[in-house]
From TrEMBL:
The keyword Flavoprotein applies. It comes from Streptomyces griseoviridis. Pfam families: Flavin_Reduct. Belongs to the flavoredoxin family. This is Flavin reductase (DIM6/NTAB) family NADH-FMN oxidoreductase RutF. Residues 21-175 form the Flavin reductase like domain. Its cofactor is FMN. PANTHER family: FLAVIN REDUCTASE LIKE DOMAIN-CONTAINING PROTEIN (PTHR33798:SF5), FLAVOPROTEIN OXYGENASE (PTHR33798). Keywords: Flavoprotein, FMN.
Length: 202
């Protein structure tokens, strides 16, 4: 037995809760920006993924018009900082609706470091930073999808294994439904099966 639901007949909040509880786990874009007035902003966005590799483009979604979106529109730049398990509480605190003139870096007590190619700072304690220049935005209902071309990548050597980021060293934090967060858990290796090898594998 299933519960059958028509999103058109539901309150938008109910749809949001259903989608964010079933599209899980979601990686977190911990987006740092700087306003036209020079105020640094930092906020987590859990509608986030890779859009393209050639060219390298990532995307995050601003639900409503938040400071991250306004700053990206004003400056054309942002940084996606990796959200590690070790900074769980700090990441959550940067989701607070601080006034526009307040920097989350200062309010939460997070260290900055300068970026190589963009004006927005990186989170010093984050193991990976993707520095981005705005490619385009797409308005969808009450949300805006922000596409950023990755122009520089900075990775902490401590999370590399033979030059490749190693997930058990990265310890990614993810978002689930309600107020739930996810940590890495069990990691399994399984290669994709080529069609040429299909009959031999079954």
């Amino acid at each position: 037995m299933r519960t059958e639901l028509d999103p058109a007949g539901l309150d938008p909040t109910a749809v949001y809760r259903l989608l964010t509880s079933t599209v899980v786990p979601r990686p977190i874009a911990w987006v740092s920006t700087v306003s036209a007035d020079g105020v640094d902003n930092l906020a987590p966005h859990s509608f986030f993924t890779v859009s393209s590799v050639r060219p390298p483009i990532v995307q995050f979604t601003s639900v409503g018009r938040k400071d991250s979106l306004r700053n990206v529109e004003a400056t054309g730049q942002f940084v996606v900082n990796f959200a590690p398990e070790s900074l769980f509480e700090e990441i959550n605190k940067t989701a607070t609706d601080f006034p526009h003139q307040v920097s989350e870096f200062d309010a939460v007590g997070l260290g900055r470091e300068p970026s190589a190619r963009v004006a927005a700072p990186r989170v010093a304690g984050s193991p990976v930073a993707l520095e981005c220049e705005l490619h385009s935005t797409l308005l969808l209902g009450d949300s805006t999808v922000v596409f950023g071309r990755v122009v520089h990548i900075a990775i902490d050597d401590a999370v590399l294994d033979q030059g490749h980021p190693e997930v058990t060293r990265l310890r990614p934090l993810t978002r689930l439904g309600k107020d739930e967060w996810g940590t890495l858990g069990e990691v399994r290796d399984l290669r994709r099966i080529r069609y040429a090898d299909w009959s031999a594998s079954n």
